[in-house]
Specification:
The complex is a heterodimer of chains A (245) and B (279).
Chain A lengths: L14 E10 L7 H20 L6 E10 L3 E11 L16 H10 L14 E6 L7 H13 L1 H5 L1 E7 L8 H5 L10 E3 L2 H20 L23 H4 L9
Parallel strand pairs in A: 1-2, 1-4, 4-5, 5-6
Antiparallel strand pairs in A: 2-3
Helix pairs in contact in A: 1-6, 2-3
Chain B lengths: L1 E2 L5 E3 L3 E8 L2 H5 L6 E10 L2 E10 L9 H23 L4 H31 L8 H7 L4 E6 L3 E7 L3 E6 L4 E3 L20 H4 L1 E6 L4 E6 L1 H4 L5 H18 L1 H20 L3 E8 L3
Helix pairs in contact in B: 2-3, 7-8
The chains are: A alpha/beta (245), B alpha+beta (279).
């Protein structure tokens, strides 16, 4: 039997899916809120890995932006694979520089910094407060983000911790969200925060990995190229928990 | 003579042609069909030989649930329409043929595909047939790459993603069409678009001293780290053919494509080749 022909040269690689956590660690997050967030993000990692087992072609590359008085990298700016990702404790203090965090996110979503053939990035914003940057700065950061091709195509979800209007500004977080039918996920109990973080991170990752946008120029599918299901009813209906934020 | 098999065909003055499709590893895991299709046709008109290669990639998500049929009909439409071109314009005057290809092929190809889709849908969907024709076309949505190889040149058409490369015998690579800078990620144009005939690009390249013509669905290039690595693969493939011969290489290609899908893109992969002899 003749020797097999060597496989042609060329480095083979899986397609990357860039995942960004954008987490508030302002003073109001102290205590149970930040503890629950730390725990929930850690628990989400194996859940994402399990959910993507049927999509071995996807390589999740994860980063995290934290914001209080200012925004900075918690994990990054270089992304790490899911297997290498670890979440170190965040301690709460300071104010809520959400606009700076979105600007930092936008700076990484330029065409030059993103793989052209990757999946739509996933951006999950978690906050319990009103943005302390000016409204003008906040709106400008959102505009910068969605003016970028990958920013526009990204799956952007937001979780508000506490009560809308009292703890966080729902209208302002909604400006960040790509899927208006889902809206801002209201986590007013620790249970909801854990479940929403898991649901949003898993659902957005799976949705992005299945994304198809055919037709170009929005001819067939419009601007939303990732379809997401509704949040599960058992999360939405947890309304009478004794343990509230 | 229609040839669609896993053995290379040979035409004395145009060289070897070969095609192969493999089902994507993620399609295997998720019990989805292969939504790619290809067809190879060789013949002669007025004593002038030609080879036609056609490759298509059905879009494959829920909105395009009949796209595996759409891709099959796309390669059929491409072959049918090129044969119709031969009959209408002949190959005696290559300049006339080429001019007609550039000006008329996109419109005629798109029209042909739509006719075939409507015929298929009337059989397949029967009473479930939607009155909105555009919705039907969208369900069959697909890309298409086609090459008509003549003794002096190659006529090429493409709509949607996928790659057409010509690796010259001196290893220089010609990418026939630039990537559309307006499309990112999985975005692609589609034969099902209302203005598909405007989105279908055409080009004519000189055969020169011959080389390897590659038509591939995006599952292949997406399996490589970047465009440069895909080019490395393409050059290496030509080297393998030169060293081992098309017959031997063609028998290895299905396993290679499976590897690329499993270790890279996860997608269906279709590759059609023509190793063009020096004229």
């Amino acid at each position: 039997m003749s020797e097999p022909i060597p496989v042609p040269e060329g480095e083979v690689a899986k397609r990357p899916l860039q995942f960004f956590w954008i987490t508030d660690y302002s003073g109001s997050m102290s205590g149970k809120r930040i503890a629950t967030l730390n725990q929930a993000i850690r628990e989400s990692i194996p859940a994402i890995r399990k959910a993507l087992a049927s999509h071995p072609e996807v390589e999740i590359k994860m980063r995290a932006i934290k914001f209080s008085d200012r925004a900075s990298w918690h994990v990054g700016p270089d992304s790490v694979s899911l297997d290498q990702f670890s979440w170190s404790e965040l301690d709460a203090n300071g104010v809520t520089a959400t606009a700076q965090a979105i600007n930092l996110l936008a700076s990484e979503l330029s065409i030059e910094k993103m793989p052209r053939k990757g999946y739509p990035p996933v951006c999950l914003l978690i906050s319990d407060g009103f943005c302390t940057d000016s409204e003008q700065e906040y709106d400008k950061s959102i505009q910068t983000l969605i003016n970028l091709p990958w920013g526009k195509k990204s799956v952007r979800l937001a979780i508000g911790i506490g009560k809308a209007g009292e703890d966080y500004d729902e209208e302002s977080l909604l400006k960040f969200v790509s899927h208006r039918e889902i809206g801002v996920l209201q986590a007013d109990t620790p249970e909801k925060l854990v479940q929403y973080i898991k649901w949003a991170s898993v659902t957005a990752s799976v949705g992005s990995s299945q994304s198809k946008s055919k037709g170009g120029q929005g001819i067939l599918d419009g601007d939303v190229n990732v379809n997401l299901p509704e949040p599960p009813a058992d999360v939405v209906n947890i309304s009478s928990s004794i343990d509230v934020f | 003579m229609e040839l669609q098999n896993e053995l290379p065909i040979y035409e004395a003055s145009l060289g070897h042609a070969f095609g192969c499709s493999v089902k994507g590893s993620s399609h295997e895991l998720n019990q989805l069909p292969c939504q790619d299709a290809y067809s190879i046709w060789t013949g002669a008109f007025s004593g002038k030989p030609y080879i036609i290669l056609a490759v298509a990639d059905g879009h494959g998500d829920k909105k395009h649930d009949l796209s595996q049929y759409g891709s099959f009909l796309a390669v059929k439409a491409a072959i049918d329409e090129m044969l119709s071109f031969c009959a209408t314009f002949g190959l005696d005057d290559p300049a006339v043929f080429k001019k007609a290809f550039k000006s008329d092929f996109p419109r005629r190809l798109c029209r042909k595909w739509r006719v075939l889709v409507k015929e298929d849908a009337s059989e397949r969907l029967k009473e479930e047939m939607d009155s909105d024709e555009q919705k039907i076309y969208s369900r069959y949505g697909t890309t298409l790459l086609v090459a008509f190889i003549m003794t002096d040149s190659i006529l090429i058409g493409q709509i949607g993603d996928g790659d057409i490369l010509f690796v010259r015998n001196d290893s220089r690579i010609e990418s026939v069409f630039d990537e559309d800078s307006g499309l990112i990620g999985s975005e692609t144009y589609s034969l099902s678009s209302p203005d598909a005939h405007k989105l279908l690009q055409t080009a004519i390249i000189d055969r020169g001293a011959g080389g390897l013509l590659i038509l591939a669905t995006d599952g292949l290039s997406n399996a490589f780290a970047d465009e440069n690595q895909f080019h490395v693969f393409s050059q290496s493939l030509l080297d393998r053919i030169k060293e081992y011969g098309m017959q031997a290489v063609s028998s290895s290609i299905p396993a290679w494509l499976n590897k690329y899908s499993h270790e890279g893109s996860g997608d269906d992969i279709t590759l059609a080749l023509n190793y063009i002899k020096q004229p």
